[in-house]
Each structure stands twice: as structure tokens, then as C-alpha cells.
Design a protein that fits this description.
It is a single chain. By secondary structure, this protein is α/β, with parallel strands linked by helices. The protein has five helices and four strands. The chain has a single domain, classed as Response regulator (Rossmann fold), CATH 3.40.50. A four-stranded parallel beta sheet has the order 2-1-3-4. Strand 3, helix 4 and strand 4 form a beta-alpha-beta unit. Helix 1 crosses helix 5 and helix 2 crosses helix 5. The mean pLDDT is 97.
């Protein structure tokens, strides 16, 4: 079982979308039995809430279902997951405040896996922007996750 956790700030936009994208792609590749996928937020702002309706709508247009409820990242996540993927540099820093250097060995920026990142390693926070921002985030997530699955299938 390969265990992957996606982390953003609120756990209502970017990381639930990454979780939904990954669930769909592993199901399409008949790999779903081999993976445990989850998401969390570094903040406590939206604990218990469903995904932002704007992100849920944009995902639904691509037949991606978002079914998570927001929870906060906790220390045990370092133990419970093999790979922790932060959406941006701030998320990465906030995760690092909770773990040791050793714990941080399993934390990466998701866009390290985006072949079109061009050095921009953050998935931008779409929360305060318009509808296009949500669609742009989904494009980045789809590219990154596709490449991530290829990487994981080669690794283990
Ligand atoms: P997320 O987006 O980190 O992608 O879930 C945000 C959601 C809520 C807030 C910020 C970002 N907020 O400030 O409430």
C-alpha cells in the first residue's frame, strides 16, 4: 500500500481537488487497491467543512468527485503516510514546523512533478480569485498527479 497525503492551507480547495484527481486517475489505471490517498490543511480554519463549492463545481465538470471533509494536518501524518505533498512553499514551511529534519524527508512540493511548472513550484491559492483560478489549479493538479503516479509506479 502506497500512502499519499496532499496538504494545503484550508483543505477545502487545492488539496481536496488533488485527492479527487488522484482517486480518479488511480481508479482509471486499476491501481486503487494499492493506494491510500488523503488530504489535510495546515490551518484549523475550515475543519469539518466540505470542499469549496467553486472547486467542487470545477471538478464536477471534469467528472472528478470531491468527497472529503476538511481536517488539520497532525504530527501522526508523518508516520501514517509515505509521501506528503505540499501545494505551495508556505504549506511546506508550516509542515516543517511540526516535524524533524528526518520527518521532512517525505515531504515534497507537488509541482515538482508538473512537467510544465517552468520553475514555478506552487499551486496558487484560488480562494480569493475568480472561476478561472479553480480551472487553472485543476490543470496543474492533473498534470502533476499523472506524473506523480508514473513516478510512484517506477519507485516501489
Ligand atoms: P486551500 O484554499 O488552502 O486551497 O483550501 C484556501 C481556503 C481557505 C482559505 C485560504 C485558502 N482561508 O483563508 O480561509
Amino acid at each position: 500500500m502506497k500512502k499519499v497525503l496532499f496538504v494545503c492551507l484550508g483543505n477545502i480547495c487545492r488539496s481536496p481537488a488533488a485527492e479527487g484527481v488522484m482517486q480518479k486517475k488511480i481508479r482509471e489505471r486499476s491501481l486503487d487497491e494499492q493506494y491510500k490517498i488523503d488530504s489535510a490543511g495546515t490551518s484549523s480554519f475550515h475543519i469539518g467543512e466540505p470542499p469549496d463549492p467553486r472547486m467542487a463545481y470545477a471538478a464536477d465538470q471534469r467528472e472528478i468527485a470531491l468527497e472529503s471533509r476538511a481536517r488539520q494536518f497532525i504530527y501522526d501524518d508523518f508516520k501514517d503516510f509515505d509521501l506528503i505533498l505540499a501545494m505551495d512553499e508556505e504549506n511546506f514551511e508550516d509542515i516543517s514546523l511540526k516535524g524533524s529534519t528526518k520527518d521532512m524527508e517525505k515531504v515534497r512540493l507537488l509541482r515538482e512533478f508538473d512537467p510544465e511548472a517552468n520553475g514555478n513550484l506552487s499551486v496558487p491559492d484560488p480562494y480569493y480569485g475568480g472561476a478561472q483560478g479553480f480551472d487553472d489549479v485543476l490543470d496543474m493538479l492533473e498534470r502533476s498527479v499523472e506524473n506523480l503516479i508514473d513516478f510512484l509506479e517506477r519507485q516501489y
